[in-house]
Amino acid sequence: MELKAEPLLPGDAVTGACLSLTASISFWGGVDPASGTIIDARHPERGQNIAGRILALPGTIGSSSASAVLLELVHAGKAPAALLMDAPDAILLLGLVVAREMGWPTPPAFRLPAADQAALAGREITISQEGRITLA
Q1: Could you say which of 26, 35, 63, 65 is catalytic?
Q2: Which of 36, 62, 79, 109 has its CA at 20 to 30 Å from residue 29's CA atom?
Q3: Fold topology of 2-135
Q4: Of 23, 3, 8, nearest to 88 (Cα)?
């Protein structure tokens, strides 16, 4: 299987386990910025940890604070290895841009339709700099 994702924020190639969320998430109040654990009591993946994993997001629930939470995750070393987003979320991506401006290593971000994300759940995948996704 090979998929093609659109690069939104470039970075190095990444290999890792894919955590494909089954519902949209709010980073503000939904993810613990110190640990990377999903803490939203109503989220289906509550208790899962996003740190170091390729995080597939079918959607985000808006809050202008999401960028700050992602920035905190990067600073704490608990950010995902990469983000796969159904649609670009400018506020969430802002956290990565600021982290990069601070000189911190940041995960790349890509656009991949939610319909394609589900097939990656629990799989070890590689994403090239150009957005080519293959099973590792």
Answers
A1: 63
A2: 109
A3: Glucose Oxidase; domain 1 (3.50.30)
A4: 8
Residue 92, classed as helix, strand or coil, is helix
Instruction: Please say if 24 is a catalytic residue.
Output: no
Query: Would you call 81 helix, strand, or coil by DSSP?
Result: coil
Interval 8-18 mean pLDDT: 96
Q: What is the mean pLDDT of residues 4-26?
A: 97
62: its two tokens:
């808006």
Which tens digits make up the pLDDT trace of 64-123? 899 999 999 999 999 999 999 999 999 999 999 999 999 999 999 999 999 999 999 999
Rg over alpha carbons for the chain, rounded to the nearest Å, is: 13
The residues spanned by each domain of the chain are 2-135
Tokens 């629990």 appear where?
122
